[in-house]
Design brief:
The structure holds two protein chains of two kinds. Chain A is of the alpha/beta class. Chain A has a domain of 232 residues: 3-Layer(bba) Sandwich (FAD/NAD(P)-binding domain), CATH 3.50.50.100. In chain A, 24% of the residues lie in helices and 25% in strands. Chain A contains nine helices and 28 strands. In chain A, the strands form nine sheets. In chain A, strands 5-2-1-9-25 form a five-stranded parallel sheet. The radius of gyration of chain A is 22 Å and the shape is globular. The N and C termini of chain B lie far apart (49 Å). The chains are: A alpha/beta, B mainly alpha. The structure holds flavin-adenine dinucleotide. The site of flavin-adenine dinucleotide has 34 residues of chain A, from α1, α2, β6 and α8.
Chain lengths: 485, 45
């Protein structure tokens, strides 16, 4: 009998748990440890943040589903890792603290045979002074509660505009090294569309602020793609859309301080500037959770397991951008020191960024951290689960399932406005996610047949279809496993 | 500044044309997803 413990019930943790449960007999234990009692389909937070979807539509409680399917659930948060156990406990374990119910505050040693760390990122608002969701007129859409608050803030600004008050709206990244530009991009286009719908578009000045060097970088070093009969840069596509919708932009911006209605930032020229706003949505820095790790004798071995995020089979040798290769990226998401620990989704430490690193004239690093969107999070979780299943069934280590982001595609369907008939979406597929400049030297590291863009109503339908399909899948309804990650 | 021509805008918003686009995009995305994924290191020179 094996016991598999999964930390986190986001996209990657939940995908891993569901596949493990489906393929392993009930004599094996699947345990999920996560502090949030709900599953949330994060991509639809964008629509919650513009008031077009209720947050209840994108969440469901995990406990009843897990009970029905035979997955054990502990509403707790992991605190520290003991991959060798300790003097009193032979088995490796995670120390976790319950966050709800009668056990709240109590700690438990949760032992495991296999551990999947799928804790995603810590939303590190504290890295930017004054950036607190719902304070200083600045909001976030990273969780459903944040998105609910964002809509309250936006609704008020819309009412003010209806009453004749002009407004400045600022959307983008709230830190020199934020990632998830795609989510902010979707949000700015949705907000713009909503202002049109409310007949107040002419009352608003909308500005994109980002740590990207050029528009459409998205933390992926930009994309060269097929667009109809043309070959187009993502920067050109985004510029076309922004200009068409009268959205201004500020690039290479390291937002470092937020005051009530003022965003202070440094740019690549090293200048300290500020931008006033009446409503802002700024994506914070993502960081590791600050977990600690100890060996059997309680010596601190945190550095053996973590580089901010958790260490996996990547090549972390520091090297300049020109020498980066796809081979640097992990394939199996296995921790090299403790081979029964796996890390899918955002929780693994990337070897480096994907976008070219840049410094301001003052030496401040200003460039996007690498994104790990929903699709790679799901794919890496499934392959980790499959390797564990194979290992349990065969009785020996098995790493046949591999999925490097340098040999994996991603579909990014960015909503550009809500509405069944009047909506819009920007569909961009990228293959591979991490550009392979050796294989595809003439197309900025990407396969042009598999890297394409399209703008239009169909994109909105696609995004809506994905919303329903992935919630259906997450609820483990009949034949859920036929829906790919 | 208008950057999308009326003809292009019509094509982007027309539900009839976009229905076909939806089918094509769904298939293309499925091909990329079903196309699978794998390692990169075997091919390291
Ligand atoms: C607004 C927004 C829109 C997005 N839109 C898209 C999109 O359209 N398409 C796309 O592909 N991607 C999108 N993404 C990215 C996508 O949501 C992420 O890639 C994905 O959620 C990552 O999954 P994950 O499981 O690694 O992390 P998460 O989803 O963050 O899950 C982490 C889990 O770990 C739990 N956890 C945290 N701390 C602990 C702890 N100490 N112990 C135990 N559990 C813990 C959390 O409660 C959570 O359940 C979007 C992201 C945002 C913010």
């Amino acid at each position: 009998m094996s016991k598999i413990v999964i930390l986190g019930a986001g996209i990657s943790g939940h995908v891993a748990a569901t596949h493990l449960r489906r393929k392993l007999s009930k004599k094996h234990e699947v345990v999920v440890v996560s502090p949030n009692s709900n599953y949330q389909w994060v991509p639809s937070n964008i629509w919650v943040g513009i008031g077009r979807m209720k947050s209840e539509k994108i969440i469901f409680p995990l406990a009843p589903l897990y009970k029905k399917k035979g997955i054990k659930y502990k509403q707790a948060k992991a605190i520290s890792f003991f991959p060798e156990g300790d003097k009193n406990e032979d088995k490796p374990y995670v120390l976790a603290e319950y966050v709800m119910g009668e056990n709240a505050g109590q700690q438990e040693k949760i032992t495991y045979d296999y551990l999947i760390n799928a804790t995603g990122p810590k939303l590190n608002f504290a890295a930017t002074e004054g950036l607190i969701p719902g304070k200083n007129k600045a909001y976030s859409v990273c969780t459903y509660t944040h998105a609910d608050h964002a809509w309250q803030g936006l609704e008020k600004v819309i009412q003010d505009m209806k009453a004749g008050k002009k407004a400045k709206i600022l959307i983008g990244t709230g830190h020199a090294k934020s990632t998830c530009q795609g989510a902010a991009f979707e949000y700015i286009l949705n907000v713009e569309k909503e202002l049109v719908r409310h007949n107040v578009r002419d009352m608003a000045e909308i500005t994109w602020i980002s740590n990207e060097y050029s528009l459409g970088d998205f933390g992926m070093d930009g994309v060269l793609m097929s667009y109809g009969d043309m070959i187009m840069k993502s920067s050109d596509l985004v510029e076309m859309i922004f200009e068409d919708r009268d959205i201004k932009w500020i690039l290479g911006a390291a937002v470092n301080k937020i005051e009530d209605g003022i965003a202070h930032y440094e740019n690549l020229e090293g200048e300290q500037k500020s931008e006033n706003y009446d409503f802002a949505m700024l994506i914070p820095a993502f960081s590791g959770h600050g977990f600690k790790a100890y060996d059997k004798n309680k010596n601190d071995i945190t550095e053996k397991l973590f580089k901010g995020f958790m260490i996996v089979d990547a090549d972390y040798t520091p090297k300049p951008y020109e020498q980066w290769t796809v081979q640097d990226w992990p394939e199996t998401y296995q921790n090299p020191s403790y081979k029964n620990i796996f890390v899918p989704g955002i929780a693994f430490a990337p070897p480096h960024t994907i976008s070219k690193p840049r410094k301001s004239k003052n030496g401040t690093d200003i460039f996007p951290a690498p994104p790990r969107t929903g699709m790679p999070s799901g794919i890496t979780a499934k392959l980790v689960a499959e390797n564990i299943i194979d290992a349990i069934k065969s009785g020996k280590e098995s790493l046949n399932h591999k999925g490097s982001m340098g040999n994996m595609g991603a579909a990014c369907i960015a909503s550009a406005g809500f509405g069944f008939w009047k909506g819009s979406g920007i569909s961009i597929t990228t293959y591979p996610i991490v550009p392979d400049f050796v294989k595809y030297p003439d197309s900025h590291g990407r396969h042009l047949g598999k890297t394409f863009g399209a703008v239009g109503l169909a994109g909105h339908w696609l995004k809506l279809m994905l919303h329903y399909a992935f919630i259906y899948k997450a609820k483990m309804k009949p034949f859920w496993w036929l829906i790919p990650e | 500044m208008k950057r999308i021509s009326p003809r292009m805008r019509f094509r982007m918003n027309n539900p009839f044309l976009q229905f076909f686009k939806f089918i094509i995009l769904s298939v293309k995305i499925m091909v990329i997803v079903a196309g699978g994924h794998g390692g990169t290191r075997e091919s390291k020179s």
